[in-house]
Amino acid sequence: MSQINRPPLSLELECQIEAALNQIHIQYWSRLEHMQELTSEARDDYKLISSVKAPQIPPPTSPNALKLLLGQYAAALFESEATYYPNDPELPHWLKKLAERVTSSVLNRVAQVEHAGTFRYVSLTYHNVQLPEMQKAINVALEPEVRKRFVVAIKEQVKESLVVGKPPKPQNGGQARKGFVEPILLKRGWSVFMWATEAEVAYNTAAGYMAGKKTYASTRVKLAKALGLDANQLP
Questions:
Q1: pTM of the entire structure?
Q2: Residue 123: beta bridge partners?
Q3: pLDDT (tens digit, 9 = 90+) per residue, 157-189?
Q4: Which of 27, 52, 108, 223 is 20 to 30 A from 181 via CA?
Q5: Helix, strand, or coil here: 37?
């Protein structure tokens, strides 16, 4: 086994992953900023210069909400890349390395948000969640994501073992779907992630549809509605 840190993927897939990651980072930057509150020093300064003499009730701390947000951030990043990983003996190694990269990416982004917040005198430290607690929250969120990928891989192996000897079906469904949907997304200025968000489905669900995977009828309705189409118009 080569033990490379991620599987080799086509440039097209790499671009899709990159676009999805960028959209996720933008979305969660805003959500993290929304959770920042004035630092204690800024509050003290405000009291000194404020003409309001009545005591001001400070906003409540939300440590669990912050931990949940970090976990959701990490899970979104992980899923947006892991969904493209092939079923391979090295999959456990790839997923482990991906989880490590995601953890580092989220913590780095928190540091960047905090640095930007210094110019507005706001910080996430108001919620009193220390770095080890952040890392633990991320790890807890990623553990089921890694297990889920293993389950998917095992199911695919079982399916392949059941159809040994049967001629493979032509895999042109993904090309037909991409050829139909991509021009619509391009016209709207959407990525696949934005389409999934508008349709209120998981990113990997929309990406799986584009790749030719089987899709539930209810999901097709959501995907089509987001594009302003009827479900029977989708390939």
A1: 0.65
A2: 37
A3: 666 555 544 444 444 566 788 888 888 888 888
A4: 27
A5: strand
Q: Which domains does the chain have, with CATH numbers?
A: 11-162 (no CATH), 173-228 (1.10.260.40)
Residues listed for the chain: 235
State the Cα–Cα distance between residues 102 and 96, nearest whole angstrom. 10
Q: Which two tokens stand for residue 136?
A: 């633990």
